[in-house]
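queue> holo job accepted (6-O-phosphono-beta-D-galactopyranose)
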Amino acid sequence: MAKSFPKGFLWGGAVAANQCEGAYNEEGKGLSTQDIAPKGIMGPITEDPTEDNMKLIGIDFYHRYKEDVKLFAEMGFKTFRTSIAWSRIFPNGDDKEPNEKGLQFYDDLFDECLKYGIKPLVTISHYETPLALSKNYDGWVNRKLIGFFENYVRTIFARYKDKVKYWLTFNEINSVLHQPYMSGGIFTDKEKLTKQDLYQAIHHELVAGALAVKIGHEMIPDAKFGCMILGVPNYPLTPNPSDVLEAMKQDRENLYFADVHVRGAYPKYMNRYFKDNNIKIYMEPGDEEILKNTVDFVSFSYYMSSCATADSEKKKAGNGAGNIISGISNPYLEASDWGWQIDPQGLRYILNLLYDRYQKPLFIVENGLGAVDELVTDENEDKTVIDDYRIKYLNDHLVQVGEAIEDGVEVMGYTTWGCIDLISASTAELRKRYGFIYVDRNDDGTGTLERYKKKSFYWYKEVISTNGKSLV
Ligand code: BGP
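queue> job finished
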């Protein structure tokens, strides 16, 4: 049954700079960690950018954003989530002066959105640390990154303060636990990285995030600042109390990042974790004070739930798939072509879980189905994709968002992931498509880069114009 969404609900779509812009070395942009990762999060990195890296051209959003924003406007987007490529603004990350051409690009992009009444929702750092910071400093392991990040946020806040009123600090900040290079710019091999260094790096990110919120509140008092976490709720695989405790433990691993950002201090359960794992977080005087700058809202991505078990044999056999976290699969759920388990009710569950825990407005900033699409010609001779599977996925998830709203959860908005087809983060493929808009580019590099509206384009337009009433 269709549910009513609040007035002013922020409907929209989301992308990240490195997955759509291309123009990886144009107009003064420096290299980012993505530019030498041709096979995505899962793959190896190369010495230099290689031609097979689909992200170098992406979907050419850098040159075609006007056409794309126009299509977003046609769907009725109220908001558009994108990220700023840090290395477009500070090519090496530690430069003294920003790159004016990079700044100008985002000025133009935000102006284009505002022209149609689309509010930009901007991620400050989305898996695209300047490569020089990664190679020369080992990314967030080094405390100096806090200073470089501060310089970067001051620059972008000053520049875009009249245009951007919604900001997210780090994309899926908790993903650094699993993907230290892509998420935290940590160059040290994952296998060699010590827990001590990993958690110290996390501390630096948490301080930097809180500092960004502090500076943001001072520089743009009418803007809202949120943290962003990878949202994967864990269900106990069985009612065995050991599985229930394991699910709690795994949830805490993810949620401690938001706990710090919302409550302004480390949660007590982390003391036990640090003690058990012989980790000592080095804090500088003033860090605890900075952490007290808490976020205005909590945002998260949601693609799947997972199961947790204390049974080491079953754990080892872990058969669930995901791009960053993969757990035990749930026998009650079906999966996407990429093996990600589809669980619309899990979205209602995590919305309630986060709201019970934080009582802060929530923003679903990623959700969607990555699938192989077939381009066909319709009766009007227009090229399109009949993506009923995507419509079903999104409809079912949005119905559960409506349920959560009825449950009393404050939800600010919903941006589907990859509202226009883009390069996958995990595998760097383009055949894993999420969009309402098809982009004619293939993984072998062929294609015209033309854009075509899929069936879901018209479906989403209707959802937005009826404020969710058309959902079934
Ligand atoms: C999230 C990332 C996104 C995005 C999405 C889908 O983890 O924040 O950048 O890509 O997952 O994942 P994928 O592209 O691997 O299908």
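queue> Residues 139 and 185 are 4 Å apart (CA to CA).
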